[in-house]
């Protein structure tokens, strides 16, 4: 029963990636991101033209954000097997960071929904809520940094023979932590690679984050099935 629940939690990760991407990207149309250098009227018109698809797509994305919690929990359980039962601090850090990440995504979708809730309001208000959502999504990189770093340290400290996870998975998580950092610079840029629609602040981190779920899921299932 416990293994079955854990494997179900593993599938919550790829399910989140698929549902969030479908709602936010394919239905709501927020990808590719519009430029932060656009004027108020252009941004307001984007919401007014796509009011239903934005509301529906963001609703799907909002619901999917809760799936990060069971996925983060099963990672923490496997990390605890590496750390042991005495002071499994990295496992605790990971589950807390995963929960904060879920809250950040939840709040971001709510702000986008508020921007689309009254399309007839003043353009500058819609504009402000749009800024708030994008900055909240990408600039709050620190929980992602902490989560991936904790996972990386745990996986590389594994003394099991053979280890529960391959060593490259630990380095992969360190790499994800590094890729999250450029998002913190979007406050300084409205164009270029560090803007919220730029290569370093958006495209590379987002693609890597989505791919991470599909890389970690089979590794987690393999570790769970080795549980004695």
Your description of this structure?
With 228 residues, the chain is mainly α. It has helices spanning 2-27, 40-49, 51-64, 68-83, 89-117, 123-139, 142-156, 167-180, 199-225. The chain has one domain. It contains 9 helices and no strands.
Oligomeric state as shown = single chain
What sequence of helices (H) and strands (E) makes up the elements?
A: HHHHHHHHH
Secondary structure: number of strands: 0
Which shape, going by the Cα principal axes? Answer: elongated
Sheet-strand content, in percent, reads: under 5%
Number of helices: 9
Largest pleated sheet:
none
Number of domains: 1
Which properties best describe this structure?
elongated; 228 residues; mainly alpha; single chain; 9 helices
Please write out the topology:
Elements: H1 2-27, H2 40-49, H3 51-64, H4 68-83, H5 89-117, H6 123-139, H7 142-156, H8 167-180, H9 199-225
Give a summary of the structure in a few sentences.
The chain has 9 helices and no strands.
């Amino acid at each position: 029963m416990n293994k079955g629940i854990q494997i179900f939690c593993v599938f919550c990760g790829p399910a989140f990636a698929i549902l969030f991407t479908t709602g936010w990207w394919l239905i709501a149309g927020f990808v590719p991101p519009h430029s932060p250098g656009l004027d108020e009227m252009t941004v307001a018109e984007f919401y007014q033209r796509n009011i239903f698809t934005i509301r529906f797509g963001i609703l799907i994305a909002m619901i999917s954000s809760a799936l990060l919690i069971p996925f983060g929990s099963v990672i923490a359980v496997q990390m605890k097997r590496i750390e042991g039962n005495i002071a499994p601090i990295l496992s605790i850090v990971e589950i807390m960071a995963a929960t904060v990440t879920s809250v950040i995504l939840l709040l971001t979708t709510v702000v986008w929904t508020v921007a689309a809730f009254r399309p007839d309001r003043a353009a500058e208000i819609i504009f402000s809520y749009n800024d708030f959502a994008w900055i909240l999504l990408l600039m709050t990189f620190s929980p992602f940094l902490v989560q991936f770093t904790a996972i990386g340290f745990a996986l590389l400290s594994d003394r099991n023979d053979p280890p529960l996870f391959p060593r490259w998975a630990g380095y992969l998580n360190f790499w994800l932590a590094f890729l999250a950092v450029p998002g913190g610079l979007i406050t300084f840029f409205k164009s270029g690679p560090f803007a919220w629609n730029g290569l370093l602040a958006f495209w590379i981190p987002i693609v890597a984050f989505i791919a991470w779920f599909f890389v970690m899921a089979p590794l987690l299932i393999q570790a769970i099935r080795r549980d004695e």
